Amino acid sequence: MHEHRAAHCACMSLNIMMDPEPMFPDMYHPIFTDRKRNFRGTAKQYSRTEKPPKYYLIDFGLSSKYAADNPSPRDLPALGGDRTVPEFQGDKFDEESDPFPTDVYHLGNAVRESCPLA
């Protein structure tokens, strides 16, 4: 996405979707996830490392596209779901910053919050 000069500006867990088909070739029932969708047996399952799923970013409502000739664009913060970004703290809402590192922070923080170490 960043190679195409687009910044998402709201990379949070609600905007990340996974296609489970590689891990569940026969798909699973939406309520009883250990069963096949048609209830005829146990759903075949692989781990994420055996059959890696694809992840997709959705909801590009706050996203922006930047010119290819601008290697480090500056923009005012787009206040998405994650407001813990260091650039957004204090009274920095009127200061422009590079949106690409902010996307990386958002994504890393979404993973950290969704998959805490036990």
Automatic annotation (TrEMBL):
Disordered, as annotated region: 71-105
Domain of life of the native organism: Eukaryota
UniProt feature coiled coil, ranges: none
Domain Protein kinase: 1-118
PROSITE patterns registered for this protein in UniProt: PROTEIN_KINASE_DOM (PS50011)
Molecular function per GO: ATP binding; protein kinase activity
Protein name listed in UniProt: Protein kinase domain-containing protein
Organism listed in the record: Obba rivulosa
Upper taxonomic lineage: Eukaryota, Fungi, Dikarya, Basidiomycota, Agaricomycotina
